[in-house]
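Table 4 source record.
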Amino acid sequence: MLLKTFKKSLIEEGFKRTFLRSLHYTTYRAHQAASKINYYEKAAPVYYKKFRSYGVDKYRAPIDPFSILYINPAEVEQYSGLQYGTTSDRFYQFGTVRSGDWDLPISRKINNQPVYVEDHYIYRQILAVKNIIEGDYEKARTIQTDLSQSDMSTVLGSCESLDEFESKYDEYFDLYKNIRDNGYSSQMELYDGKRTSWPDLLDEVAVDIGRDGQFLLNVGKHRFYISKILEIEKIPIVVLNRHKIWMAHRDICYEEESKENHPDLFKF
């Protein structure tokens, strides 16, 4: 499998990028295997700032691909058409600029993906968790019944009762209560600043920014869903991909010293 991936990368990206990508993957896996060794944390900033080129660097408006923004979860209503399952590949999306229709609902429909965040089955599961915790069993039962009868029933497995549901998804209850009682924390805050921000960035909620500046959810669904359901005002996020049209708009705002209120424009 790795050999097949290596060959594909070699054809599509060339030797230099494939070599650096392989080097990064090896050091990242070594970091996972021996988390007490901080070689990866020391090497990663050098690698990403010195050896990588970013699409955002071609634009005049200043930008840090790895900066953390703070947004209201209510502002994120839809999914991105660009979603990445593997953790090590996620870093390669930081600072990427893309054209195309990946930010439009049609891109999700073509790939048979949900368009709206609140339609995702995990969001609805966590909404049922909220209802159970608050004692609204009727609403929770309705959600559980709908999920059991939906197309996702073969994946989720049906729950015959709310007790079975609570037992099956007990980790959702623990996470929901933790965020409700203790607030939403960044990954660095969760580790009391004992870990570097480079690996931790992979675990933050990640979004893409579409052509009109809209935030589109990419990675980090569970904690994001809970923050949205709890109506938390601000959470930390990172941005992976930005649309080419949005980047052109950023340049205009920068040159005209626009006072447009958008988190991705605050740096200037």
